[in-house]
Inverse folding.
């Protein structure tokens, strides 16, 4: 299975983000199965006509999001789905709650701020679990 990623150089979205978004969606949908080995940074950059740093930045973001895992010299692979995204979201939520409390927000204000942010990203139908729009 060849990885088919399209980068639009004229798009407002940065090339690394286009790569990150497409790989994340392919992994979430199952089109890229757990354990699928991604191309090397240099090889993929060459294939896409991009700088190696652009692909490396996308891979780093994917790794931070728990979508891929890098195994040193063995390469980068699609990570096991499931808890990685929820675990990272829970960590981010915990950090937010601690910061909101330090800033003096009460529970209602902190929650309203989160709901506003969700609406801004997901639209009025912000709800449910999983499902990153990216």
């Amino acid at each position: 299975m060849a990885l088919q990623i399209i980068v639009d150089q004229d798009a407002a979205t940065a090339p690394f983000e286009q790569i990150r978004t497409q790989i994340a969606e392919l992994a979430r949908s199952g089109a890229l199965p757990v354990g699928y080995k991604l191309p090397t940074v240099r090889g993929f950059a060459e294939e896409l006509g991009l700088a190696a740093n652009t692909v490396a930045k996308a891979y780093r973001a994917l790794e931070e999001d728990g979508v891929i895992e890098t195994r040193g010299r063995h390469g980068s692979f699609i990570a096991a789905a499931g808890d990685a995204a929820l675990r990272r979201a829970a960590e981010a939520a915990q950090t937010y709650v601690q910061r909101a409390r330090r800033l003096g927000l009460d529970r209602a204000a902190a929650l309203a701020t989160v709901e506003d942010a969700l609406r801004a990203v997901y639209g009025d139908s912000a709800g449910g679990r999983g499902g990153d729009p990216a």
Summary: Helices lie at 15-29, 41-48, 52-64, 83-102, 107-122. The mean pLDDT is 88. Residues 83-102 form the longest helix (20 residues). The radius of gyration is 17 Å.
